Amino acid sequence: MNDQERRGAMGAPARPVSVQKAARDCGAQPTVNETRIRVRYAETDQMGVVYHANHFIWFEVGRVELLRQLGFSYKEMETEDDCFIAVVDARCRYKAPVHYDDEVVVRTYLKHVREKVIHFGYELLRAGNGQVLAEGETTHIVANAQMKPRKLPEKYMKVFRAAMHTRSSEAISQ
User: Fold this and answer.
1) To 10 degrees, what angle do helices 54-70 and 74-81 make?
2) How far apart are CA 138 and CA 143, in angstroms?
3) What is the pLDDT of residues 110-164, one digit of tens each?
4) Sign, CA torsion 156/159/162/168
5) d(C-alpha 19, C-alpha 66), whole Å
6) Which residue among the candidates 45, 81, 89, 102 is catalytic per the annotation?
7) Cα separations in angstroms, 121 against 2, 19, 118, 161
8) At 133, is the secondary structure helix, strand, or coil?
9) Quick one: 31-173 is in which CATH superfamily?
10) In the chain, what are the domain boundaries?
11) Residues with Cβ < 8 Å from 132, sequence gap 6 or more?
12) SS3 assignment, position 12
């Protein structure tokens, strides 16, 4: 699906009407998000290499876009359902340097989902040749606005489980 199809004819992001609809339709929903980022000069260090902490910012960009692709946003989770997903662990394995003006593909997917824990996986790839630049993962606890643990609302759990099931099926068929 190209960017214009994803956004719709008027330029507004195309999204399912509700999370419930997304859950029903999830068999056809993409389960891996790929977001492209062009490295800005400000993201590099004195050696001309992307500063290591920026990889985690790119992981967040990918995570936010994956949720949008599944039919909802972080903001909706927080404002409509008092559901926050706080990072409790973040890891990155650096495989190759990234430089100013490189185009990077941030590939994001769900690794594991439980009632109170969500685990995302990431790959950073060089857009031109697919070289793996970094691999990472983040673990999140589900909490309310007071940062007290809570269960992930069922409407999100259905979407996440369906997305993981589809990803598992795709991985098996390849």
Assistant:
1) 70
2) 16
3) 999 999 999 999 999 999 999 999 999 999 999 999 999 999 999 999 999 999 8
4) negative
5) 14
6) 45
7) 23, 22, 10, 15
8) strand
9) Hotdog Thioesterase (3.10.129.10)
10) 31-173
11) 95, 96, 123, 124, 125
12) coil
62 close to 106: Cβ distance less than 8 angstroms: yes
Is 45 annotated as catalytic?
Answer: yes
Of the given ranges (2-11, 79-88, 144-153, 154-163), which has the lowest mean pLDDT? 2-11
φ/ψ (deg, to 5) at 56: -70, -35
DSSP per residue, 110-126:
EEEE-SSEEEEEEEEEE
Which token pair is 42?
């400000």
Q: What is the DSSP string of 63-95?
A: HHHHHHHHT--HHHHHHHH--EEEEEEEEEEE-
Which one, of 161, 159, 168, lies nearest residue 73 by Cα? 159
Average pLDDT of every residue of the chain: 84
pTM given for the model: 0.78
- Mean pLDDT, residues 84-88: 97
User: Largest Cα–Cα distance of the chain, in whole Å?
Assistant: 49
